[in-house]
Every structure is written in C-alpha cells, then in structure tokens.
C-alpha cells in the first residue's frame, strides 16, 4: 500500500501574526483557546484535536493572510453573542447557509487581532418537524455524511 494522506488528520495549523503578544492574548483571552506552551516567537494552542501555532512569518513570501478556519460549535448564535461581548469583530451575523429536512447549517465570520479574515464558526441546528423550510433541501444522507467531515 502506498503511503498517502487518505486517513490522515490535521495535527497542527500555523497562523501568521505580526504582534505575537497581541495575538496570544486574543486567541487565549478573547476566543478562550487553551494555551499549551510558548517559546520565543511562538505560541501553541489546542482546539479540539488540532494544535495552533502562532508565529511571525519566517520569510516575506510567507507573510500573507492564512486559510479560512472553521470552528465547530454547538450553538452559533450563543457563541457569536459571547465572543462579540468580548470584543471579537464579526463581519456578519449568524445565518443559515444550508437547510435540509432535519437540520440547518449556520455560519458567521470574524476577523482576528492580526487582520486575518475568514475565521468562521459553524454549527448544526435541528429543525422540528412541521417547521421545515423546503428551500435548499438536498439529499439528507449525503449531506449528513459530508457534515460529519467538517
């Protein structure tokens, strides 16, 4: 069998920052992520099974905004309210991005302390029978399987 990334999982994500102290305070105090440890020029956090590494860009070609990160939470609206109260700058309000027969996929985006936009929060909300909006309804088993991979 050829080794590949088929069954791999993410172990660490590097996030480029300009001001490490400010970014560390934001991810620790504002977002509430557990700080694992720090070295000069680096800070490491835990988010579920993934480790975040905050660092300054080592070379100019690495000094650019990063990828979009999506934090999975049980209640997008409540998390939005709590983080907004802590000063997180959201670029939109929590909103439904997909509806199916038994669930809605909610999302909202914010900007971190370093200007990295596209930090998303996602969550599923169960829809009671009889209250379903039939717009954007897709094949439920396929979409539930896809959501399990989010």
What does it look like?
The longest helix has 11 residues, at 20-30. The chain contains 3 helices and 9 strands. The chain has 150 residues and is an alpha+beta fold. Strands 5, 6, 7, 8 and 9 form a 5-stranded mixed sheet that branches.
Topology:
Blueprint: E1 12-16, H1 20-30, E2 35-39, E3 42-47, E4 50-55, E5 69-72, H2 76-85, E6 89-90, E7 95-99, E8 103-111, E9 119-126, H3 140-148
Parallel strand pairs: 1-4, 5-9
Antiparallel strand pairs: 2-3, 3-4, 6-8, 7-8, 8-9
Put the structure in a nutshell:
This protein has 150 residues and is an alpha+beta fold.
**How many strand elements?**
9
Given the structure, what is the number of helices? 3
Low-confidence stretches: 133-150
- The helix/strand order is EHEEEEHEEEEH
Outline type: globular
What value does the Rg take, in angstroms? 18 Å
Q: Considering DSSP H and I runs of 4 or more, what fraction of the residues is helical?
A: 10-25%
What does the average pLDDT come to?
80
